[in-house]
Write a structure and sequence with these properties.
It is a multi-pass membrane protein. It comes from Kitasatospora misakiensis. Keywords: Cell membrane, Membrane, Transmembrane, Transmembrane helix. By secondary structure, the protein is mainly alpha-helical. The protein has one domain (about 20-475): Up-down Bundle (Amino acid/polyamine transporter I). Helices cover about 70% and strands about 0% of the residues. The chain is built from 19 helices and no strands. It has helices at about 20-35, 35-50, 55-75, 85-95, 95-130, 140-155, 155-185, 200, 205-215, 235-265, 265-275, 280-285, 290-325, 345-360, 365-400, 405-430, 430-435, 440-465, 470-475.
Length: about 500
């Protein structure tokens, strides 16, 4: 008697397609930048270094990244992999560079995420102490934050998008409230536009402010990571990218300018020098009321939570993509059957963060000047380096293929972006001391870590090509079924990628 045929095996769960709209993706990107934290925590230092011309630095960074986005989003119509930057770099510069970029992306997103737990611990400790009189050790706060962020990443992506939407609106609203109050009262001495005069743009500290400004945009490129979960990705991803860059550039510049007006062109620098961390709180306390200053303290904490959740989700999807490529252990590519999230990648990331946070806590390190700065700085460098490599990859990709895209999008914009982002990378490296406040030895180690990781990636690519040629050949390959609205295949096959 013949045995009954085996029941067909249920397909493995996948990420949830068609879940994220343009606004959802933009929320992830802008939340990762943590606008309130950047403004209240970093903008006062930018004013001290660059003077009242600091708002222009944020505009310049935004314009540079908008130029980059022209070629980047054009190429996104031709690349449907969920691998983010490394997929673009692979297709433009070859597989060895793609492997190096993949490791740089992991370094960048992990570092940007883990380092912020130090700031979360320090800022929440300060807020609880000043508002409620509670003295909670920062490591305890950081570990609680790790659990909260893990859970947010474990749940479905639309759950995270809803949380980020609420938190981002709240932190943006408090800054808009400050700006409206300052403008309504005409500032300290009437509104002035001296911040945009040529004389204030030649301040010797402006290169350092530009470095800070580019660091404030890190994570904006993560729009493409959500391609597999996006609605109409060929439309929503470019739109979300432009919205994020335009919002951050204009919003940063506007808010810094309004804070200058709150104190006056002459007085703002002296006020910032006395208490940089209190500049925004002093402004909103004077123009709106003490209750608004207390609320801003609370919203900085929620801003950090939003940033951590956004980077956590982005890092999970990089880990998922690399596990599916065969670069990372396959277990990290498992997707939760109910929540459709890369839950094991999230668990692995959380365990790594617990180890790093615990190590800094046991060593008695300062959560802000050491955990945050020492871990975040290589992340900033890695992501700016990836932007530069991606701009170069876009330029080379379109030069090697027959396509119907215009010259502006495929030659002029990516060529200019390559030059501008190369300059931005140099500015960040040259002004690393302003970002870290650390010794020359520490700064050298932080800077050299980035090219070292890229070189390790190149070496790993050669090893994979020799020992696992199938994995190497399929690295950053197009999915079997192209995403919606995919363009026809280019003349040159993927096999042409070296």
């Amino acid at each position: 008697m013949a045995s009954a045929p085996a029941a067909p095996q249920a397909p493995a769960p996948t990420l949830r397609p068609g879940t994220l709209g343009t606004a959802d993706i933009a929320f992830f990107v802008v939340s990762a930048a943590a606008p309130l934290t950047v403004m209240a925590g970093v903008a006062p230092l930018a004013l001290l270094i660059g003077g009242i011309g600091a708002p222009v630095a944020y505009l310049a960074a935004g314009i540079t990244l908008a130029v980059f986005a022209v070629g980047f989003t054009t190429m996104s119509r031709h690349v449907h992999s969920g691998g983010g930057f490394y997929a673009y770099i692979t297709r433009g510069l070859g597989r060895p560079a793609g492997f190096g970029a993949a490791l740089l992306a992991l370094l960048g997103y992990l570092a940007m995420n883990i380092g912020v737990y130090g700031l979360l611990g320090a800022q929440t400790h300060s807020t609880l102490q000043s508002l409620l009189g509670w003295d909670v050790p920062w490591p305890v706060i950081a570990l609680v934050g790790l659990v909260v962020i893990w859970y947010g990443g474990f749940r479905s992506i639309d759950f995270g998008a809803k949380i980020l939407g609420v938190l981002l609106v709240a932190e943006t609203a408090i800054l808009v409230l400050l700006a409206v109050a300052v403008l309504a009262k005409g500032g300290a001495h009437g509104l002035s536009f001296h911040s945009f005069s040529p004389g204030n743009l030649t301040n010797g500290g402006m290169p350092g402010v530009l470095a800070m400004a580019f660091a404030a945009f890190t994570g904006f490129e993560s729009t493409v990571i959500y391609r597999r979960e996006a609605k109409k990705p060929d439309r929503s991803i470019p739109r979300a990218t432009y919205i994020a860059v335009a919002f951050l550039g204009l919003f940063y510049a506007f808010i810094v300018w309004t804070v200058i007006q709150a104190f006056g062109d002459e007085e703002v620098i002296a006020t910032a020098a006395k208490d940089p961390s209190g500049l925004f709180f002093s402004a909103i306390g004077s123009y709106v009321g003490p209750w608004a200053a207390d609320l801003m303290h609370v919203l900085i904490v929620t801003s950090l939570v939003a940033s951590l959740l956004a980077f956590h989700n982005a890092t999970n999807r990089y880990g998922l993509a690399l596990a599916e490529e065969g670069v990372l252990p396959k277990a990290l590519g498992r997707i939760h059957p109910r929540h459709r999230s890369p839950y094991l990648a999230g668990a692995a990331q959380t365990v790594l963060a617990v180890i790093v946070v615990a190590a800094f806590a046991i060593a008695g390190a300062d959560p802000s000047t050491q955990l945050l700065i020492w871990v975040n700085t290589p992340g900033v460098l890695a992501l700016v380096a990836l932007q530069f490599l991606a701009a170069l990859a876009v330029l080379r990709y379109f030069r090697r293929r027959t396509h119907s895209e215009g010259v502006l999008r495929t030659v002029a914009a990516p060529g200019l972006a390559t030059l501008l982002l190369g300059g931005a990378l140099w500015l960040v490296i040259d002004n690393i001391g302003l970002l870290t406040g650390a010794s020359e030895t520490v700064n050298l180690v932080l800077v050299l870590l980035v090219p070292a990781v890229f070189v390790i990636g190149l070496g790993y690519a050669l090893r994979v090509r020799s020992n696992r040629p199938q994995v190497y050949a399929g690295f950053a390959a197009e999915p079997a079924e192209p995403a919606e609205s995919a363009v026809p295949s280019e003349t040159a096959p993927l096999a042409a990628v070296s």
